[in-house]
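Worked problem 6 (solution included).
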Amino acid sequence: MNELYRINLRGKEFISSSELLREFLQNLVKSNLAVIRQNGEIFVDRNPMIFYNVLDYYSGDGFHLPKNICPIQALKEVEFWKIPSKDIPSCCYEVLYDEHEAQYNSIENFDSDLKTQANQTVSPLYVEKKTKPSLERLRYRLLEAHTHPFSTWSGRIWIFISALVTITSVVVYLLNSDEQFRIPREGLPVLPYNITYEEAIVNHKYLVLIKTAREPTKSALEQLTNVFLLLELMLKFAITHQKKSFVCSLQNVLELLTGISVFFVVYLDRNGAEFMDDPVLEDILVVIGILQGLRVIRVLRLVESTPGMKVLKLSLKESWREFALLVMVLTSFSLIFGSTMYWIELDHPDTFPNIFVSIWWALITMTTIGYGDFYPKTAGGYCIASLAAVFGLMLLAMPITILASNFNAFYNCYNYRRRHLLSRT
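Solution. The predicted structure is:
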């Protein structure tokens, strides 16, 4: 048996006979990372908690990490004691590579955007020196009110007014799309050959848009709220310090297009009969109508500053790999089941007219929606449909479970961090 020697880690004594560890400790002494005391023991200024596991490794018994250790601390100790990554067993991966550190970093970066943006151009010291005090103070306060609206009175007032205007805009938009809240249009041109509009226009939706108009009061209210929201968007652009990111934001672009489209809708509404026989104008009306419907995304602005919405956006952003996996898997199996169904049902032309329809059917079946507009009529088709339904349940369950787990992890991390910050105040 090798000679025994003592090791002291911050007052905690250990005894070992490992020559490999003795050699390593001597190298630490040469590097001034350890000290040999007068009684012969070797003192190392390290946390002794994980050293039990280090002794096991240098004694030839393998290396394992305790469960109740911070992954950052575990990684530092592993690096200090020169334990190769190949010698770390798979049962310790969860401890060493805990993903909560990355989640906390993402939350901190996501939640501290105001401080980052503010420090880029204006610091508290800069404000105190009264250098351009009016402009910079106003910009900083507006940025603070926008980013953290519930932390200041100005932010609360801003988000209340914005919420009121947004809800009014959405409600007016919904009312204007209903025939009951529209008024008969005056001055409609007389159609040739003494035919009525009901006879000339088969599509009831177009007929309503042509024969009715928006009430002047609701139309004026819609334009007023739209102008306010456009001015608010311009104000956000003016106060932000990340203008490139602001311009590249899909949500900001959609809000801008939605606001501009309102003025086109007002013009088309006043001249409803002009696009009756013009296919180009009809297509333009459809595009503008879609943009009008996207105004509902403004509601997201009302809740994006709340903790729940922040966590949801962050978890969705960090789960793009799971989304990509879900899309790829659904696309692949939709092609497989769709093409198989098309050829099995080839003798029934009234079931799946082409392979694209069968792929559509497979996607709808695998997502458990099942419109029932297309369905198989043969025994083979029934078997394929059953397999598609079962595979759809399994394929959807796995990525969705991961997404839910990511959201739960981010939400817990966010709450832990918030409670920690509150305890410091």
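Discussion: Strands lie at 5-9, 12-16, 35-36, 42-43, 182-184, 212-214.
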